[in-house]
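User: I'm preparing a small set of examples for a lab meeting where we compare how different chains pack in three dimensions. I only have the primary sequence for this one, and I'd like the structure in token form so I can line it up with the others. Please keep the answer compact; I'll paste it straight into my notes.
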Amino acid sequence: MTYWLDGGTENNKFVSSSALKELYKRSKQETEVTDETESIGSKVSARLTTEDQPSDELQSGKVGEEIASVVVGVDSCTVGTEPDDRVKDLEVFDNLDNSVAPFLSDNNVSAAEEKVSPTPFLCKTWSNLQWNVNITHEELINIVSTMLSELLLKCLQKDPSNSPTNWDILDKQLSNFVRRISTLYRHENRFHNWRHACHVTLGASYLMEKAQEDDLETNFVDSNPWHRFTLVFAALIHDAKHVGVSNRQLVMENHMLAQIYDGGSCLERQSISVGISVFLEEFPELSVVILQGNPLFMRYINSVILATDIMCKEVQLDSKDKFLRSVENRNVENDNDLRIIRTEATMEQLMLLADVGHCAQQYETFLRWNRAFYEECLLANLDRRGFDPRSGWYAGQISFISDYVLPLAERCDKLTLRRCGLKEGVEMNLTRWKAEGEAWTDRMVEETTPESLGVVSSV
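Assistant: Understood. Below is the structure token output for the 459-residue chain.
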């Protein structure tokens, strides 16, 4: 169930526990005497430039500079005229029906029924950043793979003198990894599903781009491309195997996951365990290159995903304290340990915002995901696994947005140098929700009957 418990990792000479410990030990020794960015750059033993690799895939534009024009959230956030079919997979929604929040399941639209415009799209603002709701599961795999491929390529291009000769293998493994991870998300979940993972992935990429933009001295995180790749990777796997109920509910049930991960945050720990196990065991060439290129990869992945346990007060206090100690305190710029902690704190906060990003985006986007989470909670309740969301949903959203999302948006506005308008987006949605949310909630409660959700009465 957890994949990690089979002990197979020790059989892999490249990524066994002992090999990883040795790699981390060597990397730690280097980071003690050099700048973090330089040490990571010097440790990369497998890098790539487009001039060094004659593969057909590379020359055809599958990877390289042209990919940047396909992926929203990469560089200028512009979708260009790339002939690849994946260009059609993105769209900005400006005219969604306020009263409709469709079921965001991968089973919602069949490939035969899909109609997606091939017109290039421009995504200028955080508010408009989202996937077309009609995109199929397969298309999301392709476009997210392209995003990660482009980001990895930038990481490997940091040191052209150490280019790998196996980019075709790396690119294929990365694509297969995304496909594999997509199978670890439960279609039955109305909120914590593959589409949510892709929405968070897109948001994380966009926010880190803004945090690193122009490589200014005022930025809180340096321009190292591994930071962005690592954050997007974490976003991709952060809810893998989510079971559709909260950690608190699993503890109350004495669920197997709560027993295995008895230190708390069992859902997050399972996602890390499963995602990293798949990464190390099934994609050895890819994992070796990434771990050598970014020796802090595992540390960042672990801390970022654990931080997404937003219902655990201790976790959130620790994350906020790390932010205050490292980001607010910039007096010791030459302290390498502080820079690493600051990068970690930045990643955590941006990840947390991306995870609830819909609360800071267009109101229609907020409603769509709000309803998806409501339906997931209701389905759990009908299965006698959690609270009844039909009572107090409207007021609960006001508290959540005011007490959690708004302060988080303010911190992330600081990290992105106010390039995204996050606080303003949250405040606009909160104001509108206070005015319209109660009536909208009443309609939603009336519409989402057990029958409409596919729940068959046992009576």
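A couple of notes for your slides: The radius of gyration is 22 Å. The CA atoms of residues 14 and 230 lie 20 Å apart.

User: Perfect, thanks.
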